[in-house]
Design a protein that fits this description.
single chain, 471 residues, alpha+beta, 5-stranded antiparallel beta sheet, 12 helices, globular
Length: 471
């Protein structure tokens, strides 16, 4: 009747926690009943130091929301669990599957029901919707979508068609900010996110790096090629969408609800998709972004043959200032944070993990995928010594009991040293924070010890004995 589940499983279905309530209470155990018709949690009341429970069920938007709070609280969690078993029986066989709460303004979001003809569907959307190996991602994304409010009215159509990457990025940010404890105010549709937490407010506009046939290159195959692309090509790829955001006729920071509050640009690179055996551009483009944002980079050294030497192979690395970036016919100024209007940008948030396979792994960890699907993740993670140029390789099965992953593991916030309204890094825990002191000519880092620089996921379908690799 009542089955205990993990916090990770509970989190895959619950997206309605209020930050203030988490200050007053702490969840200590989680349960599901009747094939997840009902969820429940045992809570510790921090004020009175006793235990109670809450019961959740789907409302008319299909969101799991609280429908019952224990009438009494108890000295131990065991007593609270016994009381939960008694009270949850009132709902198990009441004939209801939906428990409307009267404040639902929009219908449930069925993100996978096609709203356009098949020939207009994005190929990644087709893969996500139909392939058995992405069952976990599909189930998790549907649950997240129930809590995602489409203020523009075209999110589903764009998610299914040409703007798939951009809309997946917004969905990733939605769950990232939720897990960071923010409420998202959707009373305005620009910028994309109005975040609130304990009286603190900030705004985030989502940006993506897309393809450009006249400029783009083939995927690099060596570390030397990546180093070379980070000098000019990648800064230009990041620079175009970022500069466009601070060159609008109607600026974000001039809007009444934004004025005087931190404003963040959140960027993800999708300009070269992953292919069989070839990683997507998001896995090797981060260094180019840092070079562009601060106008400084490691001095590039060359071998006798004229090839670049990767920074991690240089015994005494040095930094140099950059004034511009040139690639083919394209020329842009470097140091984004020093450009006109950039003082209004508090930080640039970067991630390389807003991909189908991230949702697939997180769904798998939450028990939303088939047991016949196995996943192996390989990549490189942060060195505990952030000054070290050497990254740490890893390879783990997702089902390994020691495997851990959070939404913030691939996220870095680059802070603007010239910002008029700096971001408080304490409001964005777990992710890595980087800033550059222009006077000391020194980078400073608050590092997420679990930070992943890049990775690939191998998906194995045991029943079909087939292996697929995606980024």
């Amino acid at each position: 009747m009542l089955r205990e589940i993990s916090l990770r499983q509970f989190n895959a279905y619950c997206y309605v926690r209020h930050p203030a309530l988490q200050m007053l209470s702490q969840e200590v155990a989680w349960f599901e009943a009747r094939n997840k018709k009902l969820l429940a949690a045992i809570i510790f009341d921090r004020t009175d130091s006793d235990y109670g429970h809450i019961i959740l069920a789907r409302d008319s938007r299909k969101l799991f929301r609280c429908i019952s709070v224990s009438k009494a609280f108890f000295p131990s969690p065991e007593e609270a669990i016994q009381n939960l078993k008694e009270e949850i029986g009132l709902y198990l066989n009441d004939g209801q599957e939906c428990y409307p709460q009267g404040d639902e303004r929009i219908p449930p979001t069925d993100i996978f029901k096609p709203v356009v003809d098949d020939d207009k569907l994005h190929p990644y959307f087709k893969v996500l919707s139909n392939e058995p190996r992405f069952e976990a991602a599909r189930n998790l994304i549907q649950e997240i979508a129930y809590s995602f409010e489409d203020v523009d009215g075209n999110y589903i159509q764009q998610f299914q068609t040409a703007a798939f990457d951009a809309r997946l990025w917004e969905l990733f940010l939605h769950v990232l900010f939720y897990n960071a404890g923010f409420e998202c105010d959707k009373s305005k549709n620009i910028p994309d996110f109005w975040l609130k937490k304990f009286g603190y407010e900030c705004f985030v506009e989502a940006v993506t790096v897309g393809p450009n046939e006249s400029l783009d290159v083939e995927s690099p195959t060596t570390s030397q090629e990546i180093t070379e692309l980070s000098i000019n090509y990648l800064p230009i790829k990041f620079g175009s969408p970022l500069f466009n955001k601070i060159s609008r006729n109607k600026q974000y920071w001039d809007m009444d609800h934004v004025t005087g509050k931190p404003f963040i640009l959140a960027i993800h690179d999708y300009h070269i998709p992953a292919a069989s055996g070839v990683p997507g551009s998001m896995t090797w483009s981060r260094a180019g972004l840092s070079n562009y944002l601060y106008g400084v980079r490691d001095v590039v050294e060359f071998t006798e043959e004229g090839k670049t030497i990767p920074p991690w192979e240089i015994t005494s690395p040095k930094m140099e200032k950059i004034t511009e970036h040139r690639f083919r016919e394209k020329v842009i100024p470097s140091n984004f944070f020093a450009q006109p209007n950039a003082q209004h940008v508090s930080a640039v948030l970067f991630a390389n993990g807003a991909t189908i396979t991230t949702f697939n792994r997180m769904g798998k960890l939450a028990g939303l995928g088939s047991k016949d699907i196995q996943m192996i993740r390989t990549g490189v993670r942060a060195n505990p010594d952030f000054r070290s140029p050497y990254q740490i390789p890893f390879s783990m099965q997702i089902d390994d009991p020691d495997y851990e992953e959070s939404w913030s593991d691939t996220v870095v916030m680059f802070h603007n040293p010239n910002a008029l309204k700096p971001v408080n890094p304490d409001m964005f825990p777990q992710m890595t924070h980087i800033t550059y002191d222009q006077d000391e000519e020194q980078f400073y880092v608050i590092q997420n010890p679990n930070e992943i620089y890049s990775s690939a996921t191998i998906v194995v379908m045991e029943s079909e004995e087939s292996t697929n690799e995606q980024m």
